[in-house]
Amino acid sequence: QTSVLHMATLMRNSVIAARLLLVRPADALRPDSRGLTPVDLLDDSTAPELAAAFGRALSDPSVACLLPPSAGALLYRAARRGAAGVLRMVLAVCPEAVDERDGSRDDCTPLYAACGRGAIAAAMELIAAGASPLRECANATCTPLCAAARLGRPELVETMLRACGPAEAESARRWISRSLWQCAQRGDADTSRLLLEAGADPNSCGPD
Q: How far apart are CA 24 and CA 190, in angstroms?
């Protein structure tokens, strides 16, 4: 079943959606029969007035206290569709959710999802909010840094390398070397150079 707010959001009817959110702001987080909330229907093409109405709804104290349990999943889905504005909106209310895994089968972070889909703007938004390029998926086989290396976007890899803190040095060496192996497979000279300069092991044997 789909609510009126879902339909108004889907049809980009800012006036109706804003009025509904003013009366019942918590409906911004109410899922439909597919498990999607009205927030999940927003993207970077959403009109500013509609985005602003949702931003006010999420900031409402009665809604902000409901957001943490679902924030990670909202961020993950927004990252997958490259919705940088939605990421910014949710993180403004619940910044601690930036590195939460989504709880699905792959159980990965929003930053991994953004990199996996080639959503550069969304990835940059998450890194700026403090997302870790080295946060492993639940199966410990990949990180956002590896996904960015596979993507072949050296500017994103460079930003991620700068975001790796001193406390992550040991983990960084492991994942930088694994990322180099992936770049070598693709013949990506520019990204490989960045990883080597960051300390990647040229004799890395790739995934365990």
A: 51
Q: Measured in whole angstroms, how far is the alpha carbon of residue 30 from the centre of its chain? A: 21
Model confidence pLDDT, tens digit, residues 79-116: 999 999 999 999 999 999 999 987 766 689 999 999 98
The residue type found at 98 is V
Give yes or no for a contact between 152 and 184, defined as CB atoms under 8 angstroms apart: no
* Calpha distance 58→67 (Å, rounded): 8
The model's pTM: 0.87
Distance between CA atoms of 179 and 191, rounded to whole angstroms?
A: 9
Q: State the amino acid at position 207 in one-letter form.
A: P
Residues contacting 166, CB < 8 A, separation 6+: none
C-alpha closest to that of 82 among 52, 50, 44, 38: 44
First to last CA, the chain: 45
